[in-house]
Every structure is written in C-alpha cells, then in structure tokens.
Description:
This protein has helices at about 5-15, 45-60, 90-100, 100-105; strands at about 20-25, 35-40, 70, 75-80, 85-90, 110. It is an alpha+beta fold.
Amino acid sequence: MQSLELAQKAAFFALEKKAEKPLILDVSQLTSFTDYFVICEAPSERQTQAIGMNIKEELGKLGKKPLSLEGFEQGNWILCDYGDVVVHIFLDTVRFHYNLEGFWHEAKIIPCES
Length: 114
C-alpha cells in the first residue's frame, strides 16, 4: 500500500467515527521522517479515543501496525505513527493551540472525502 493510500484510508476510518475537519498534509518534500500527516479533531476526549481505536483496528485488518501510539489515555492529542503516515487526532481546542497546519503551511493540503 502506497503512503498516500494509507493516509486516505486513515482519514476515511477517522470519518467513520465522526472526525471533524479532516485533512491530509503532504510533507514529503519538507521533512525526512514521514510523507503525510492526517489531521482531524473531535469535541471530546472519548471521541478522539474512538477515532484512534477505529483507525488502529481497521488499518490492522489491512496488515498495517503502528510503529507507536501516544496520547490515548488523555485523549487530547492522539498520535498514531505508521512511518510514512502520522495521524494526529486532536481535541478541537488543542488542535487550534498547536496549529500544525500553520506550522507546516508550505505542505500541500489534500482534502479528505467524506
């Protein structure tokens, strides 16, 4: 599975659990540690956790295991690292605070299909 396809599947699985404002950032020309960020948000910690679990379970069914998972206990910012794709699931207020889209403003934005 190519990294863009993996990012699109992660975004799709996030949307299955009602993730809000999803997008994919192509950072492949800007950094050496990953190709794509998938970024989304939710209004509660419980929902961010549900989104993260759905991504982990559904990608696992496709044979993709995360290299690391962080932030599940708190649910404010969950990070699922799949190597070429890093998924960021934010509590809505936390996403605004960290502003990854602004930090990586040179990245190409790939809209997510809902």
